[in-house]
Design goal:
The complex is a heterodimer of chains A (340) and B (296). Chain A is an alpha/beta fold and 340 residues long. Chain A contains eleven helices and 15 strands. In chain A, helix 1 packs parallel to helix 2, helix 1 packs parallel to helix 10 and helix 10 packs antiparallel against helix 11. Classes of the chains: A alpha/beta (340), B alpha/beta (296). Strand 11 of chain A pairs antiparallel with strand 8 of chain B, so a sheet runs across the interface. Chain A: This is Ubiquinone biosynthesis protein UbiU.
Chain lengths: 340, 296
């Protein structure tokens, strides 16, 4: 149903955890930036990051003066008895003049659709919509304009979804690889009491401990041993699904290796099948990181637009992205069927 | 309170499944959820077999609900979901918004994976036909009680009260990965692990359980000791998730609870029947793996 996206309508969506990061994204070629408030309505609720009203006003002015869009993520689930905080955030977002809000909770979506019918709604990846019927649900009841797909579909499955919905589809291009279906993972709260759905965090920093023991450097999450490193090994943040564990007397990365998702090589194909936007993950990252990743992806998108048939990933792009990737490794994740 | 036997989360041989449900049919559970909710590659029982089991249980006086998959990826998954939603004989438990879309106003049960965290969403789903909802696993008693106050008239509340908790779903099959097999050629590895494949930390602490594309808690959620609080919170249904041994005895213990058995003593008796340590942290607003509050 969707027209193949004309190359000019394919959007690069970049993270802005702060005003300097927003400016770095805009200055380096982002078509859209996404950001969030400095509270529990935001699934990247990290200390010292995110936006208050004044910073959002400045950010919107900066982006709009340069013809770019600002998307606001309200992508946690309102907790019982605290709905006023999330509803207030919808009002603040509408008042600030953002181009769209990114929502996960159906109740909040209904509130937004009824109170602010002109406000453009995007279904957050935390909404866990992996199939055409789920997307149809959000379209039918709330009129969503775009859905962000969880990082669990193969390229062929993405293509099938795009071909069978009139909702714009956005996919993840680069950044941390979430192995589980976003919005359906309670592993973090199982270990620490806080999860993306309830507190906007996964493997929260306050629960992390690093200890140098007799058997090497150990990382723990609320006391649970996530990994132990030999001297030559690169230690990474103890996201609990990316640790080494014992299964039937074998020690390995039982769920996933620490690596970043990188779909640069799929870019012409994503454009061809009608994906409308590619998202760069990382609102917790520095402005320098945002600038560099945005620049590489801008160059790659422009090259793919110019001549998709002859598109080739430049080694220099990959080198730059690998240097920024988790464990300096990248993967196509689930887009590549063999990953499974 | 009524007792429900939740959907079978593991891959058991066909004969084992059949004898399991014969035992359930003869026992005191009131509600039985049936069907494959984890992986579409598992088909010891086909859709028609599940319907036959459903008829057996209905004949034994049980309320039967057909549970839908939590993660639907392929168009074949969606086709199977359409058939399930339109079976015309049994209500379904929706575990994905795609299933809610396909119920098209018919009554359904809103499953534990729909992310109902607040009154607005609870009321919305009720307006779409949900007559019962299952609380998210990670929700506390305190949050539940706030939600119960906002519960629409006629909406029943169910709580996952016993079993290893299904905490996450992925495209990747961790059981196949353990054998270095691709997901598409998994050789049905799950069938070797009737209570899942345990994953321990490198210092031997049981942590999680690999169950195909699903990740479960290693510790077993046991709310038997919280029976009075569950009743006081207005919970209508307690869900017992099947495990490979002792499910019938566990159902009997929960049946004794509603006939006045001592909660603390029952919790201890139930704990002795579990494949791993008990936990109840979520109910107390704590990390899920903890065992907090009253003995469980």
């Amino acid at each position: 149903m969707t027209e193949p996206s004309s190359p000019s309508s394919f959007e690069l969506v970049c993270p802005a955890g702060s005003l300097p990061a927003l400016k770095a994204a805009v200055d380096n070629g982002a078509d859209c930036v996404y950001l969030g408030f400095r509270d529990a309505t935001n699934a990247r609720n990290f200390a010292g990051l995110n936006f208050d009203e004044a910073a959002i006003a400045q950010g919107i002015a900066y982006a709009k003066a340069r013809g770019r869009k600002v998307l606001l993520a309200l992508n946690t689930y309102p907790q019982p008895g605290m709905e006023a905080l999330w509803r207030g955030a919808i009002e603040r977002a509408a008042g600030a003049g953002v181009d769209a809000v990114i929502l996960a909770d159906p109740g909040l979506m209904r509130y937004a659709a009824e109170r602010f019918p002109q406000l453009r709604l995007h279904l957050s990846v935390q909404g866990s919509a992996t199939n055409v019927e789920a997307i149809a649900f959000y379209r039918r009841h709330f009129g969503i304009a775009r859905a962000v797909l969880p990082r669990v579909l193969s390229l062929a499955q993405v293509e099938h979804v795009v071909a069978n919905t009139d909702v714009e589809i956005e996919v993840f291009g680069f950044g941390s690889l979430c192995v589980m279906v976003e919005g359906r993972c309670a592993l973090s709260s199982y270990a620490t009491g806080e999860s993306p759905n309830t507190h906007g965090v996964c493997s929260p920093a306050r629960a992390v401990r690093w200890e140098n023991g007799p058997r090497g450097l150990e990382s723990r999450l609320n006391g649970v041993l996530i990994d132990r490193y030999a001297e030559h090994e690169h230690a990474s943040y103890p996201t609990l699904c990316k640790g080494r564990f014992d299964v039937a007397d074998e020690t390995y990365y039982a769920i996933e290796e620490p690596a970043s998702l990188n779909t640069l090589e799929l870019l012409p194909r994503l454009m061809e099948i009608g994906v409308r936007a590619v998202k760069i993950e990382g609102r917790q990252r520095s402005p320098a990181y945002v600038a560099q990743v945005t620049r590489v992806w801008r160059d790659a998108i422009d090259a793919a637009r110019g001549n998709a048939a002859r598109f080739a990933v430049k080694p220099d792009w990959m080198n730059q992205l690998n240097a920024l990737a988790e464990g300096q490794q990248h993967t196509l994740g689930a887009y590549h069927r063999a990953w499974k | 309170m009524r007792i429900a036997v939740g959907p079978l989360l593991y891959y058991w041989p066909r004969a084992t499944v059949m004898s399991f449900y014969e035992e359930v049919a003869a026992g005191p559970a009131d509600i039985v959820y049936l069907g494959e909710t984890v992986c579409s590659r598992r088909h010891e029982l086909r859709a028609a077999d599940w319907i036959a089991v459903a008829e057996l249980l209905r004949g034994a006086g049980k309320e039967v609900v057909l549970s839908s998959m939590a993660l639907l990826e392929s168009s074949a998954d969606v086709t199977a979901l359409r058939k399930l939603a339109q079976n015309g004989r049994f209500e379904i438990e929706a575990n994905d918004m795609g299933a809610v879309q396909l119920t098209d106003g018919r009554p359904f049960v809103a499953g534990p994976h729909l992310n109902i965290y607040n009154g607005g969403t609870l009321q919305l789903l009720h307006s779409m036909g949900a007559r019962r909802w299952v609380m998210p696993l990670e929700m506390s008693r305190k949050s539940l009680e706030v939600l119960q106050a906002a519960r629409p008239a006629g909406m029943e509340t169910e709580v996952f009260a016993l079993g290893r908790m299904p905490l996450a779903f992925s495209a990747r099959c961790f059981t196949a990965r353990h054998r270095n097999l691709p997901k598409d050629d998994c050789r049905f590895s799950c069938i070797a692990h009737p209570d899942g494949l345990r994953m321990d930390t490198r210092e031997g602490q049981p942590f999680l359980v690999l169950n195909g594309i699903q990740t479960q808690s290693a510790a077993v959620y046991n709310l038997a000791g919280e029976y009075d609080a569950l009743a006081a919170s207005g919970v209508d249904v307690l869900r017992i998730s099947p495990q490979s041994a002792h499910t019938g005895s566990i159902v009997a213990h929960f049946d004794a609870l509603r006939r006045g058995a001592d909660a603390a003593a029952t919790a201890a008796n139930v704990t002795a029947l579990l494949p791993d340590a008990a936990c109840n942290g979520y109910w107390h607003g704590r990390p899920g793996l903890e065992l907090a509050g009253r003995a469980a």
